[in-house]
Structure formats: structure tokens, C-alpha cells
Design goal:
271 residues, alpha/beta, 12 helices, 8 strands
Length: 271
């Protein structure tokens, strides 16, 4: 079963990926990026996954713990030396919803992955998430959202949202047309990438790239964007995610959200 994550992992590293021990769906590979080694990580579908709810690119128990394991291994390997860049290739359809997952603590597995990404970022690894497909719900929170910078391919199949369009229609008891009309008026409700970009969370949108079948020029273009993002991270004086609140788009579109954070901060003396 192919996926955008697998396609781009092969394209950007030009080698067969390795499978994280204990999983069948978490792949990684190391490759040279601007004269240094970078680690690329992705989650892929597996029709034979031992957890049926995680067979179509979802982040489930194995995926959450597997992501945490490879990230922690990377940090240990670089301890005391240069922190290599970490590139999360994101094409995840959802977190895995299921009775087994709830009983066995999917919240812990996904939290472990998110915590490992945050620890890598705070520990000095430039962490870049490249959105090549779906970036949905808790799966995106576990795999990619903690990155210093978020880049996305400008492609209709790149989708960033808390909930699928059809699921949102069922939950809100609206038809799909009404969901689309809401998205046209309220950017956070939209399923269109350009509307998500208005929120100021993306560091860049890469246009003109063949997302399903990248050629040499496409790969070179994306590598160039990754290198620029890594340099931007290293030039920054902070390792937090504050840049997502200070971009012009965020100040314009999320002014109320920023004001609420400031008020809470003042009242709770968080800073």
C-alpha cells in the first residue's frame, strides 16, 4: 500500500527506508541535506497491521510508541554532538479510534510521540514537518505538529483539520454543502489549504510540485525549502512555537486568540 509519506521518504533520501522496531508502519531513513545528515521519519499504511484500526495511515498504539522510540534514539545518538535535523513527512489520516486503542492507552502513545518531538525541538534539533498529504486530528498532533516549522505542498490532497469533512457534517447535522459554506466564511472550518495558511501556522507553501510522482526538479525544490527552513530555525533565538503567533497572518486572523492568551498569561502569571 503506497502513500505520499512513503513516496517522499524514498524521493528525498534515495534509499530503502528502515522500519522502526516493533512497528510495521513507522519508517525512517537518513540522508544528506545541505552537507549534513538529516533524519526523515514517516508513518505509512499497512493492510496487515495487527491493529485493524490503524491500517490506513492512522496513528495508533504502535505508531505513537514507534515515533517516540525513533526520536528518542536520535536524540541519544546526537547527545554531546551536532543535533541533526529531523524531517517529519506527514500523511496521516487520523488517530486510530477503537476499543482496543482506548483500553491500551492511545492517549499515552500519542502523547509520547508529541513529547518526543517537543523534546527534540527544545534540545536543539531543527524539526521540520513537511505536509505531503493528510494531517488530521490527533495523528497530526502526534506526528509533526510540534515541529519548529511547518511546510506544506500546495496540492488538493494536502488536508489539515481536526475532523474529516464527512464526520464534521454528521456531528454538526449539516450537509456537506453547508460545511463548505461555513469553511468559506470561517477559515478554521475550511478544508482548503490556502485558508489554513491564513491562520499563520505554516512557514511556507510549496507550489508547483508533483506530489504523487515527484521528479528530480520537484525533489530539488523541496530540499531547497527544507534547507531554508532548517537555516531559519538555527538562526532563531528561540526554540518554542511562538512564531505561529507572531506572523502577520496570525496577528490578523487570530487576534482574538492571541488576546485571550495574553489575558490568561497576565492572570495566571505564566511568564
Amino acid at each position: 500500500m503506497t502513500s505520499r509519506g512513503h513516496i517522499w521518504l524514498r524521493a528525498l533520501t534515495d534509499q530503502a527506508p528502515q522500519i522502526v522496531s516493533g512497528t510495521s508502519t513507522v519508517l525512517y531513513a537518513d540522508a544528506v541535506l545541505n552537507e549534513e545528515t538529516a533524519r526523515f521519519i514517516t508513518v505509512v499504511p499497512d493492510a496487515e497491521n495487527r491493529f485493524p484500526r490503524a491500517r490506513n495511515g492512522e496513528v495508533g498504539l504502535d505508531e505513537g510508541w514507534g515515533l517516540a522510540a525513533i526520536l528518542r534514539d536520535t536524540m541519544r545518538a546526537d547527545q554531546g554532538g551536532a543535533r541533526r535535523p529531523i524531517v517529519a513527512l506527514v500523511d496521516v489520516t487520523s488517530q486510530a479510534y477503537g476499543r482496543r486503542e482506548e483500553m491500551l492507552g492511545i492517549h499515552l502513545a500519542c502523547a509520547a510521540a508529541a513529547d518526543a518531538y517537543a523534546a527534540a525541538r527544545l534540545g536543539g534539533h531543527p524539526v521540520i514537518a513537511l505536509l505531503v498529504g493528510k494531517a488530521m486530528s490527533g495523528a497530526f498532533l502526534a506526528h509533526g505538529y510540534q515541529a519548529n516549522r511547518l511546510l506544506a505542498l500546495d496540492d488538493p490532497a494536502v488536508l489539515i483539520h481536526a475532523m474529516g469533512r464527512e464526520a464534521a457534517a454528521r456531528v454538526t447535522r449539516r450537509c456537506l454543502q453547508e460545511i463548505d459554506e461555513l469553511g468559506a466564511r470561517i477559515p478554521p472550518m475550511s478544508y482548503v489549504l490556502k485558508d489554513y495558511a491564513k491562520l499563520g501556522l505554516l512557514s511556507g507553501v510549496i507550489a508547483g510540485v508533483a506530489a504523487d510522482d515527484p521528479g528530480a526538479d520537484d525533489v530539488a525544490r523541496v530540499k531547497q525549502e527544507l534547507v531554508a527552513a532548517i537555516m531559519d530555525v538555527r538562526a532563531s533565538t528561540t526554540r518554542d512555537l511562538g512564531c505561529r503567533l507572531t506572523s502577520p497572518e496570525a496577528r490578523d486572523m487570530r487576534a482574538a486568540s492571541i488576546a485571550v492568551r495574553q489575558k490568561i498569561s497576565e492572570q495566571w502569571d505564566m511568564r
